[in-house]
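As a warm-up, study this chain.
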Amino acid sequence: MQRRDFLIGALGLAVAGTAQAQTTPHWLVGTWLGELKTPQDKHGEGRRMVVVSVKGEDVSLRYGVMTTEKPPIVHGTLHGDELRFNSPGVKIGDNSLILTRSGPDELSGTWGAARTGKTYPITFKRQK
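Now compare it with the structure written out below.
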């Protein structure tokens, strides 16, 4: 009887642990508000990134200026704390972003302009 009770208890803990692991979101999932610093940038702090899912190295997210109602889903890659993705450009090609986790709720990196090839600093903070 004791062995059976032990096995039932161990099984219950394993199931509970599995359920908890499945409900804990990846650290990157959520809404991030950002600031892009370019000489001609009209939107300033108005960047938003919503990370929808992270599965292994594959990341699904929406990225755009704050005035964009619902930007399309784009896909990126995550290697450790580094996220890389291309944002759809307007008639000029895709702009590239490389972001690294710089704090518990911060990302920083570069935004590469497709038209000029120049890169500019970009930072994001998690929206709470």
